[in-house]
Amino acid sequence: MLLDRRFALMCFLSMISVLGMSGSLAGAASPASMSEQTTVASKALRLSVNDALALFVSQNLDVLIAKYGIEYSKGQQITAGLFPNPVASIGTLSAYTQGRTLANSGQLFSQVSQLFELAGKRGYRIESAGFGTQSAEAAFEDAVRQLGFTVKDTYYRIQLAQRRLVLAEENRDRFSRILDINTIRFKKGYIAEVDLIRIRLQMVDFQAQVIQSLQEAESARGDLRQLLRLSPKTMLELTTELDFRRIDPDIERLRVAALDVRPDIRSKRYTFSQRESDLKLAKAYRIPDVTIGAGYAVQGSKGPDNPGQVALNASIPLALFNRNQGGIRQAEVSLQAAEADLNKTVNLVENEVEVAYRNLLQSRRLVEAYVGGVLEDARSTFTIVERAYERGGATILDLLDAARTSRTIQQNYIEALFNYQHQLFQLESAVGQEIAS
Q: Which string of DSSP letters, residue by residue, matches 9-74?
C-alpha cells in the first residue's frame, strides 16, 4: 500500500515537471508565439487606483444609467415651468324656421380661451421639480460613492492575490531547492525516504497555493474589467501597491462631515423638500383655476342680430364637492414617509461611520503588530531552522513546522494589510469623502 502511494506521488510530480518543460520548449520553439506575447504585454493598460476611478466614472454603465436620471429630472423641471396651452374653438349657428337656412342666416363663431392657474400652482411645481433634480444629482453622486468603493476594493483584491502569489512562489522555489538537496542526501543514505516524501508533499501544497492565487487574481481582474467596461482581452498592470499607510482619523470631524456631505443624506433631504412643495401644491389645488375666453361671431345678411359680434367670457369650477381632499392626504403621507426615510438614512450613516471607524482601528493595531517584529521573526525562524536542518541540528518535522508557521504568519499579514485597506475604504465610503490623515 505504501509503495502504491509512493508510485502515485512520483507520477504526479513527474507530470508537473513534464508539463512545465513542455511549456518552456513550446515557447522556445515558437518565435511567433513569443512575438504575440510581447505584443500583448506591450498593450497592457497601466492603472493606478486613481486612474481606475477616473476610468470607472467615464465608462461604467451603472454610472451612465444614474446620469440619465439627472437628465430625466431636468426634463420634468422644464415641463413644470410651462404654461397651459390656449384653446381655440370654432363653430356655426343657424335658424331653420321661417325659411331660414345656414346659407342665408348662418353664424360663424370663433373663440380663444386661456386657463389661468391661481394660488401659485406653477411656482410650487417649479419648486418641486427643482428639488427633484437636486435629489437626482445627489443620487448620482451616491451611486459613484458606492460603486467607487467597489472599484477600489476590487483593485486591491488583485494586489492581495498578487502578494499571495509571490509568497507561494517563494515558498515553492525554496522547497524546490530543499527537495533537490535532500534527494541527493537520500541517495547517499543520509535521510530516510519518509522524510523525502514529506518534503515532496509540502512542495505539492505550495504549488497548489500558487495555482489558487493565480485563479483569485484572474477572477478579481475580470471583476475590475467589468467595472471599468474593458474588453476581456485587456491586460491590466496595476501600479498602486498594497502598502501600509497609517491613518489617524478624527472621528468627531468625520461624524459631522458624514451628515453634511454624504450624498444619500442630501438626496433624502432634497426629496423631503420636494414632498413639502408637493403638499403646498396639493393645498393650492383647493382653489379652482379661472378660464378666460374671447370670441368673434360673423352672421349672414339675414341674421337675427348684428352682422358682427364680440364675446368675452370667464368660467370657474364651483368647488362644492372636490376640493382635492384625497390629494392633500396623499401629499401629507408622502411627506411623513420622506421624513421617516431621511431619519432612517441619518441613523444608518451614523452607525456605518462608527462601525467603520472601530474596525479600522482594530485592523491598524493588527497590522502594526505584524510590522513591529512578528513578521520578521517568522521569516528568520524559518531560515534558522532550515540551516540547522542542513547541518543535522533539526528534524524534517521541525523544518516543515517552521515552514508552515512562516507561511501562515506572512499570509495573515497580507490578509491583515488588505483588511486594513478595506476598512479604510469602508470608512471613506461611510463618510462620503476621502480621508487624508
A: HHHHHHHHHHHHHHHHHHHHH-HHHHHHHHHHHHT-EEE-HHHHHHHHHHH-HHHHHHHHHHHHHH
DSSP class of residue 416?
A: H
Grid coordinates given for 410: 506572512
Per-residue pLDDT tens over the stretch 116-155? 999 999 999 999 999 999 999 999 999 999 999 999 999 9
Using the 8-state DSSP alphabet, how is residue 289 labeled?
P
Q: Give all strands (DSSP E) within 164-206, no chain letters.
A: none
Q: Which of 218-232, 285-299, 372-386 has the lowest mean pLDDT?
A: 372-386
Domain 7-22+43-59+119-286+325-431's class? mainly alpha
pLDDT confidence tier of residue 298, bands split at 50, 70 and 90: confident
- Residue 397, Cβ neighbours under 10 Å: how many? 11
Q: Please determine, looking at this structure, whether the domain spanning 86-116+287-323 carries the CATH number 2.40.50.
A: no
DSSP-derived secondary structure letter, 288 = P
